[in-house]
Amino acid sequence: MELTNDWYLVLSVAMFVIGAVGLLVRRNPLVMFMCVELMLNAVNVSFVSLGTELNDVSGQIAVFFVLVVAAVEVVVGLALVVAINRRRADATADDISVLRG
Amino acid sequence: MSEVIVFAVAAIIVLSGAVGVVISRNPVHSALFLIQTLFGVAVLFVLQEAHFLAAVQIVVYAGAIVILFLFVIMLLGVDTADDWSVEPIAGQRPLTVIAGAALGGLGLALVVVASDVLTGKVRSGGERALDERALDNGFTDIERIGRVLFSDYALSFEITAALLTVAVIGAVVLTRRQLRSELLEDLEAVSMDLPPAAPATSGSEAPTPPGEGNTTAAPVAPGESRAR
User: Fold this and answer.
1) Which domain holds residue B184?
2) Are B68 and A75 in contact (CB under 8 A)?
3) Which residue among B21, B88, B170 sits closest to A22, beta carbon to beta carbon?
4) Gap between the Cα atoms of A58 and B46, Å rounded
5) Closest residue to B15, CB basis, from A5, A15, A81
6) Which of A30, A36, A61, B105 has the fewest CB atoms within 10 Å, i.e. is most exposed?
């Protein structure tokens, strides 16, 4: 058996689906953020594997930027969670629906 | 063959960690499972000779992001388990499973059927990448990334710096405690807007009355925020 690029892509799809299902099912904002991280990591795996496949370092550069955006997203998101929790404790995603248009 | 074994072990680590994140009732356990997944992904990066990214993955993700998660969990005391018995939106979970299966099927179909299109082989016509970008040009991993990142992607890199600055300022502004004078101004504005007959509609979201203003400005004890 030889390790091909498709194996990585299949793993990436599986990770992405688990993250997406978790994002839809869970109600705790913190766990929802973790599921977003799962999805971002799934994309990172596919980026690196496609970069290896095409013999191009650009895939790894893309992962680098995804990492930065993920860090930024978590910082702002957790700041929002803290700000919301100051007004009402134990807020789930359903309780934060006051902002709907 | 040994590569296949490493891949299999890493894939098991990654997928079991991912499932653990989703099904753990306690957010702390979810965060720990997330670390497991991230280490598995780092192993996959090493397997593809992206050593720098593997190191960054562990330092930035496991060392910074997950610690941030844990810190917020501990800070807020969100240690209560999720109540799975309530389903806020009727039929959401079956629909989610169907949507997930559809998404997975679509992804697998893409990988199996359109693999060459997906990898960009068709688009690039199988040509070799530019020498400075090629993975077999004799440079080490970090040299290669550094050369490309600070030449072709220099502008993106600068914008990343701006993005990080904005995020830090945003986080500080969002979590900042209101000054007492601003709180009083807000209170005056709210009391002018509200019709006198319905003060109760503002409920828990109304600012604290002037008499308690000084207690709000004082540092809040850890237990106090949870009690509110």
Assistant:
1) 180-196+206-227
2) yes
3) B21
4) 17
5) A15
6) B105
Q: What's the total number of domains in chain A?
A: 1
Q: How far apart are CA A49 and CA B119, in angstroms?
A: 9
**Which value does ipTM take for this structure?**
0.91
> Which pTM was predicted?
0.79
Residue B104, both tokens = 């997975």
Q: Find, among A66, A22, A11, A98, the residue nearest to B33 by Cα.
A: A22
Please indicate, yes or no, if residue A95 is contained in any of the structural domains.
no
> Which CATH number fits the domain that encloses residue A27?
1.10.287.3510
Q: What is the mean pLDDT of each run of 10 residues along chain B (228 residues)?
A: 91 95 90 94 93 92 90 77 68 86 89 73 65 76 89 92 94 81 73 59 47 44 43
Q: Do A60 and B145 touch (CB under 8 A)?
A: yes
Q: Is the pLDDT of residue A19 over 70?
A: yes
| pLDDT tens digits, B51-82 | 999 999 999 888 889 999 999 888 887 556 66
In a domain, residue A100? The reply is no
Please give the Cα distance from B218 to B176 (Å, whole number): 13
Q: What ranges in chain B are assigned the alpha helix state H?
A: 2-23, 27-47, 51-56, 66-76, 92-113, 115-118, 121-124, 141-149, 154-175, 180-193, 213-217, 222-227
Sign of CA pseudo-dihedral B201, B207, B213, B216: positive
Tens of pLDDT, residue by residue over B103-124, are 999 888 888 887 777 666 666 6
Flag if A15 and B3 touch (Cβ within 8 Å): no
Please give the Cα distance from B159 to A100 (Å, whole number): 31
CA angle A63, A64, A66 (to 5 degrees): 60
H-type alpha helices, A1-101: 5-25, 29-53, 58-87
Q: Do A85 and B34 touch (CB under 8 A)?
A: no
Using CB atoms, pick whichever of A19, A76, A81 lies closest to residue B72: A81
Nearest CA in chain B to A68: B160
